Automatic annotation (TrEMBL):
Organism this protein belongs to: Vigna radiata var. radiata
Family to which the UniProt record says this protein belongs: Belongs to the plant acyltransferase family.
Domain of life: Eukaryota
InterPro entries membership: CAT-like_dom_sf, Plant_Fungal_Acyltransferase
Keyword Membrane: no
Gene that this polypeptide is encoded by: LOC106775076
Matching PANTHER family: ACYLTRANSFERASE GLAUCE (PTHR31642:SF189), TRICHOTHECENE 3-O-ACETYLTRANSFERASE (PTHR31642)
UniProt name for this protein: Fatty alcohol:caffeoyl-CoA acyltransferase isoform X2
Length: 301
């Protein structure tokens, strides 16, 4: 896939920068570095960061050694016709759900105060939000006929600091791997919220140096994709909206089109929209109505 940049000017004096890129070229942190460097070049300044492009740092071992089971991965030949990365051909409704900082605090308190909750466990905003999305998504596409159906949520983990030795902070490439959490629909519905949050948290905790190397080696041997019911892709704190171009900071950064019903995107609010997070969801109309109702129900709205 080619990397392309297009600028569209508007009569009001504003303009939009559209960028199409491949995930093999950039992950979110690398793309932020790219934007910082574009801003520096536009301002006729030295590069903000000198990129490290050494892809050998993430090469598979020789010989490859898969030392963990990887249920979050599926071989190419075993991929279902419909998977999370395929653009949907069915009718989808799009909606931006918003969680204020108070909503996020409420979710964290729900986890902390739930039955069996460990008061000493650190509950991050991301883990609480992801657990909230998981239960809404799992139950919105479940007709109740198979409560033992397995639901797996995926999310990206930056492995730069998890490897031994760590990658250079200036590493510019794709240095994220997919963490996962799995439970049955019955468990997602009945578990205390803290249990869901902890299950999400375990996905990131699992991503040690050896586990990451095992996934990389699995990919070398099997060629495949992450596999799950829903993938949470967080652009929430990557800082795209904080890039200082000579003409100012962006008003907003988001996808232009979005046709993947099993990928949920997290973004910071539009400038002036306060604290919190914006959640972009695309679902068939019936599933969207149920997702919306569950989203509000679990927030106590």
């Amino acid at each position: 896939m080619n990397n392309t940049i297009k600028i569209t000017s508007f009569k009001c004096g504003g303009f939009a920068i559209g960028i199409s890129t491949s995930h093999t070229t950039f992950d979110g942190l690398s793309f932020k570095t790219f934007l910082d460097n574009v801003a520096s070049i536009a301002a006729k300044k030295p590069l903000a960061v000198t990129p490290c492009h050494d892809r050998h740092l993430l090469a598979a071992r020789s010989p490859p050694s898969v030392t963990f089971p990887h249920p979050e991965m599926l071989k190419l030949n075993d991929l279902p016709k419909s998977n999370i990365f395929e653009a949907s051909t069915e009718e989808l409704h799009f909606k931006v759900f918003k969680l204020t900082s108070n909503d996020i605090t409420k979710l964290k308190e729900e986890a902390r105060n739930s039955v069996g909750g460990d008061k000493s466990t650190r509950i991050t905003g991301f883990n609480a939000i992801t657990a909230h999305i998981w239960r809404c998504k799992a139950l919105s596409c479940d007709d109740g006929s198979n409560p033992n159906r397995s639901s797996t949520i995926l999310y990206a983990v930056d492995i730069r600091s998890r490897l031994e030795p760590p990658l250079p902070k200036s590493y510019t490439g794709n240095a994220v791997l997919t963490a996962y959490a799995t439970a049955t629909c019955r468990e997602v519905e009945e578990w205390p919220f803290m249990r869901l949050v902890e299950t999400v948290r375990e996905g990131a905790t699992r991503m040690t140096n050896e586990y990451a190397r095992s996934i990389i080696d699995w990919g070398e041997m099997n060629k495949g994709f992450p596999n799950g019911e829903v993938l949470v892709s967080s652009w929430w704190r990557l800082g795209f909206e904080k890039v200082e171009f000579p003409w100012g900071k962006p008003k907003y950064c988001c996808p232009v089109v979005y046709h993947r019903k099993d990928i949920v995107l997290l973004f910071p609010p539009v400038e002036g929209g306060g604290d919190g997070v914006s959640i972009i969801v695309a679902l068939p109309p019936k599933d969207m109505n149920k997702f919306h109702a569950l989203f509000n129900k679990f927030l106590g709205v």
